[in-house]
Design brief:
With about 90 residues, the protein is an alpha+beta fold. It has a single domain, classed as Ribosomal Protein S8, Chain: A, domain 1 (2-Layer Sandwich). Helix content is about 50%, strand content about 15%. It has three helices and three strands; from the N terminus they run H-H-E-H-E-E. The chain has a three-stranded antiparallel beta sheet with strand order 1-3-2, with helices on one face. Strand 2 and strand 3 form a beta hairpin. The radius of gyration is 13 Å and the shape is elongated.
């Protein structure tokens, strides 16, 4: 089971501090994404890590990806490590 599975997502939804963490990560990453897109850069990698690398990191990467998918000029790709790779369209 990973952070993409419903039981894990339901578990984390009971902890509002995770939403705060993800919002803070988004507020940190979004300006960098905008600069990358405006300068024509094609790759920016954002990584999350945790003890096992299957639950929290995957959950947080997925939630950040959902938020970044709404940013113009951005495609979001996952690597098996749970990192988010952002490419300009």
């Amino acid at each position: 089971m990973t952070g993409l599975d419903e039981p894990v997502q339901a578990f984390f939804s009971n902890y509002p501090e995770i939403d705060v963490f993800i919002e803070n990560a988004y507020n940190l990453v979004k300006p960098a994404v905008e600069v990358y897109v405006s300068r024509g850069f094609q790759h920016l990698m954002v990584s999350f890590g945790c003890t096992g690398g299957r639950h929290r990191s995957v959950y947080c990467a997925e939630k950040l990806a959902e938020k970044l998918k709404g940013v113009e000029g951005v495609d979001v790709f996952f690597k098996t490590s749970g990192a988010v790779k952002i490419n300009r369209i």
